[in-house]
Amino acid sequence: MTYLSPLGYLLGIEGAALLRGFREGSADRAFVEARIAEIRALLDTPALAHAEGVTASEGTISTADVYRSWAPHYDAPGNQMIDIEQPVVRRILDGLPVGTALDAACGTGRHTAYLHELGHHVIGIDASQGMLAQARKRLPDVDFHEADLHRLPVPDNTVDTIVCALALTHVPDLAPVLAEFARVLRPGGHLVVSDAHLLVSYLRPTLPRRPGPDGHPSLLAEYHRPLSGYLAAALPLGFQVRHCEEPRRPRHDLAPDTAPDPLPTCVSWDLLHWCPEASAAALDDSPIAVIWHFQLEGTAKN
């Protein structure tokens, strides 16, 4: 069980801003004193001091449940993770030879569509019926399959490129999934993976969702990893690193004195408006995603 407190979250952001400032040498006396004063003000704010937090249970809502609700608006403008991740992935794909491509955990088909435009024969797989429905509307001529990453409906050694975007956060163990990728790739084939960065899990809360079987709000179980976690799973399978990039969060435009009214009823990203300077210091220019380009050892086909 996790107790999500609005005041606790804001104090955590203030602390992260101070620690980052100390580490990077940007915390001058005025900044430190401003943070201390703001912490005192937050503690003395009645709306925060008396705000009830939320006790949430992890793992009582499934990935399928969450993506079913996300599917109709997943590609809507403003998804910062996609806005930052997508150009990097596409830049890598632009440099790869055209062949047979697998979009693993294709979602609504955004990378599927780009691979198709580049001339690949594309196969899309996803475990979410709702997301696949959106993908099929977008690309009626592409073969889409409902399947799990652990059991790809693809023969051995038949794929030249695999893209797996923003999905491995939902996988508790990388090794069997990467082993499936290695199975279906031809020697010399390429694997492009994007995932939420480990730091995201510390600086932006996982939002509670509808109550689960125990009556408490639910937290989706997520698995955020250090960079070494990807390497430990990939290298023994014969994957070689061709590129790794950690795109960063741009500066946001929270202005002072923009605290929302009323206070959000639970931990919410809207809380950042209560301490815009600390939020900027803690979050701005921090890694938001990690993108890997691996190549399977062996000789690629001509």
From TrEMBL:
Biological process per Gene Ontology, one example term: methylation
Domain Methyltransferase type: 102-193
Lineage top rank: taxon: Bacteria
Pfam family, one: Methyltransf_11
Entry GO MF terms: S-adenosylmethionine-dependent methyltransferase activity
Keyword list, A-Z: Methyltransferase, Transferase
Group of enzyme by EC: transferase
Transmembrane stretches, start-end: none
EC number: 2.1.1.-
InterPro entries: Methyltransf_11, Methyltransf_Superfamily, SAM-dependent_MTases_sf
CDD domains: AdoMet_MTases
Protein name: Class I SAM-dependent methyltransferase
UniProt organism field: Streptomyces sp. R28
